[in-house]
Prior knowledge:
The chain is of the alpha/beta class. The protein has 29 helices and 32 strands. Helix 14 (379-392) packs parallel to helix 18 (480-487). The longest helix is centred in the N-terminal third of the chain and has 16 residues, at 115-130. It is globular and about 80 Å long.
Amino acid sequence: MITLHKGKHYILNNERIVSADGAEKTAAEQALWVDSTALPPEEGRKQTLTWKVLENHNHSGSMEHLQIRFDSMGVYDNTYVGILQTAYASGLKEFPMPCVFTNCHNCLGAVGGTINTDVHKYAESACKKSGGIFVPPHEAVIHQYMREMIINSGDMSIVSDSHTRYGTQGSLSIGEGGPELAKAMLGKYYEIDYPEVIAVFLTGAPKPWVGPMDVALSIIGKVFRNNFVKNKVLEFVGPGLKSLSMDFRNGIDTMTTESACLSSIWATDERTREYFEIHNRPEGYRKMEPGNAALYDGVVEVNLDAVVPMIALPFHPSNAYPLADVIADPEYYLGLVEAEAGKVFENNPDIRLDLRSKIVDGKIKVDQAAIAGCAAGSFENICAVDQIARKLDNGLGTFPLNIYPASQPIMYELNRAGVLNDLMGYGARVKTAFCGPCFGASDAPGNNDFCIRHSTRNFPNREGSNPATGQIASVALMDSRSIAATAFNGGYLTSAETCPVEPAIPEYHFNGKIYENIVYNGFGKAKPETEIVYGPSIKDWPEMSRLTENLLLKVASVIRDEVTTTDELIPSGETASHRSNPYKISEYTLIRKDPAYVGNAKAAQVYEKARLNGDGEKAAEFYQVLKCAGVDAPVEELMQTTGIGTVLYAKRPGDGSAREYAASCQKVLGGLANICIEYATKRYRSNCVNWGILPFISPEPETSLAVGEYVYLPGIRSAVEAGKTAVEATVIGTDRSTRKMELELKGVTEAEKKVLLAGSLINFYKE
């Protein structure tokens, strides 16, 4: 089904994988092989789609160290206020490229009084002032609008969401944290070293009962835990590509984020051309295919013929298993999840997950299902659900199946084709375009519920439960086809293979009038005289200090789970309604993972505020521990040279969302450093840097750090200025003993160095 080819490989004629050492080549390929290997490997790299697109967007003069300028950008209502505040504080006047503002995460207006609608008005006024594109609530999830209306073949776009994947249209686009979007709004470059490129070589064709989520989970399960594609570009090629519709491709593409890759790009063909024509943008299409001997840094070979219905068990998309195996042995697989829950909720010992109670007469009884968002809300996916509903011809009873088409044009066409009437007749709950089920802002299940969803993630508590108050629920990811088979089979976990239907998808017609009649398109028509509309809950970022010569940091949290997601660092769901108030949202930092963190951080921040206010008597209380490390300088001197803050230790933090709040909330609470084995994603590390949080790596596989200890970093400012990659810290234990700790500052660029020294990206631009 999935085969990994490590090391450099050529894809010859888009038909065959050949090791770069020439092994296993056929006689017919000999001439081509000689031609390709007679050239340096650099020429093979240049035959990839990735090279071609990056070269066209690079302004550095070096393909090893890129400075990218994007063609478009997108932001949404979970992120855009903070981004705009940063950009306006840094000098934004007019958007230099099409910038889309969608309202697809907090569009219910249901939590926090007027907060959400105030935010939408803020963004609408900003679009008028600076020439943005404003998509009102319920019209489209951000990635669907970008695909339908903005992205062209050969483009690059930057969007403030980790699931920014428009590779199927021949675009190489990137999801990033807010500060990187602010930089793009200011016309600045996106800086990155040239990434490794992994070919995803497709052969065969999927069975009728297999959907895009099945293919995606099969890939994620193979590549996530071994870091095979981490921070690399996935390039989809091969003869199997032609067997996939555009909706099927989009469904796979969106989910590549969960592999930990940087981005993705697909070869384009006649189906891609047709997609652009359907959406009234034929000029956006370009034929894009790799050269005859494209060289890759590895290959993921996918035999589509062999893909079977899959399920990703809680609490990560990489917990992927054949659905048939889980159905056959529920005790074993649900027991695995219960055991993992003990590690996931290490700081919530009262939480007890009881999934095996869902086994009824040897079958798993599911409590709820949802099909939603950028991964699942496509026309073809929802039509497939309708086909299965018709074949089984059962009502849902009280089983909740919630379906969210990804845009109003899709919903309009489903309605015109009669699909929505069918589904509502069988009991499905059809709702407007909204990302809510994906991050806990709607359809939050009951305590100890087991849910199945075709959405992007199933991280701990992302579905809306709150372990700090004793709640627990869990989500498994499945394709819409098997979700439909389950929902219309009384809620008992069922594979779509048991009720196969031959695909019969109605012809799709795109109604562009919907957007013409409601979307505000102000690009190139800025009205600088427009006043920004502020609601009472929209607050500016607090003042942030420059990096001091020394730092004394108290350990506020230690997380030993293998991976810490951004949802655990700052929960989604109702928390996001406070996204425009950095003080309020910071109160939720790690609230589900480590409820003591906020109190620990605030307790230390009291002393930093005293230092900044010149209160030597108060600051001296914190500095007392330095005597254990042999530092006995006067308090007046320490107040000038030694900043006070907190540090977070987690093994691999930052998997998941691009949301900047995972880092900015730490900074608002006085967090000045992270220590980890490695950062789960580039975007989280970038967020830390852009908020002035030192991104330390500990070379030790385990650390003895404990909450309440201190980490003293003498000369840290000088070390950053000098570009040192290794520093020595002194750890002061709770018993006041001391020990040395080696820390690394890997890969800090010149631009990042300036931001860290300034204390934040905002400070850097002010300076």
